[in-house]
Design a protein that fits this description.
Blueprint (H helix, E strand, L loop, with lengths): L2 H75 L6 H41 L1
Protein name: TNFAIP3 interacting protein 3
Organism: Accipiter nisus (Eurasian sparrowhawk)
Keywords: Coiled coil
Length: 125
Amino acid sequence: MNLEEQRFIWYKGQIFLMITTLLEVNKQWDHQFRSMKQLYEKQLAEMKAKLDVSERKISELEEERHRQHAEAERFRVLGRERPLQETKETKVLSEALHEMKEENKLLKQKNASMIRKKEHYECEI
């Protein structure tokens, strides 16, 4: 076997080694990507569930506030002030509603961020 044939065989071996390494790296990347995608999809589903719960609570609190406002108006028309306990309850409900709206806002932002991350990773494929 001459020198040229030996070099050819050596280069062929090097190319095979590089291809094997590249395939292994690609396999690892694919596994990591699928794991990340699965994690983001799970987190996104959890965020959506939290957002749904938050929106339901906000709706319930708004309905309760509206009901209490109607009762307060009825008391006013009757010439009486609302009992102190109801005033406190209204304040507590208003604060809870405000907190829920803030939480809802944060969940929507987090949800949007998760969607962007998911889209970004899908684009990398």
